[in-house]
Design a protein that fits this description.
Order of helices and strands: HHHH
Low-confidence stretches: none
Strand content: under 5%
Number of helices: 4
């Protein structure tokens, strides 16, 4: 893009110089037809030069924008890698999480994304295990409350079952 705009700018500058020369030659010759053609050529060359200059400036500005965006993306990738290392270290200290989840990912964004997918899957497994254990504890608390009360009780939370046990055991 920059090379193309630079080449177009050079060509426009050369055409503008030729137009200046042709205009001077037309004025010196005194030929009205040649002078009119030289003036038209000069106007077109100047217009083309202005357009080429604007495109060259735009290309340089766009390049600067892209370089800034690339630098920002590289910085974001570094921050992401550091954060992934922190999360991996935290996960490695959790007993229920799969061992490979605690292994630190590489610094490449693609490797981090792959590790993130694996970590998410491992955390979903742990979450389902904890939910199953919670449900089992709630069932056990309800059974204990029913046994202590001596009558069937409606399903309730573990906190509700504990409160029923306190009331039942406190009244005995």
């Amino acid at each position: 893009m920059i090379e193309d705009s630079a080449r177009a700018l050079e060509e426009s500058e050369a055409a503008a110089q030729r137009a200046e020369q042709e205009l001077a030659a037309g004025e010196a010759a005194g030929d009205e037809e040649r002078l009119a053609a030289a003036r038209r050529f000069h106007v077109r060359a100047r217009d083309a030069l202005g357009l080429a200059e604007r495109r060259a400036r735009d290309a340089h500005a766009r390049r600067a924008e892209l370089e800034a965006a690339a630098a920002a993306a590289e910085e974001e990738a570094r921050r992401l890698a550091a954060r992934a290392d922190e999360v991996a270290a935290a996960l490695s200290r959790r007993p229920r999480v799969a061992v490979q989840t605690g292994v630190r990912p590489g610094a490449d964004p693609a490797e981090i994304a792959e590790w993130g997918t694996q970590a998410r899957a491992a955390l979903l497994v742990v979450r389902s295990q904890v939910a199953a254990e919670r449900d089992a504890l709630v069932r056990q608390a309800n059974e204990l409350a029913a046994a202590a009360a001596g009558e069937p009780v409606a399903a309730m939370s573990a906190a509700g079952a504990a409160e029923l046990l306190r009331r039942t055991l406190g009244s005995s």
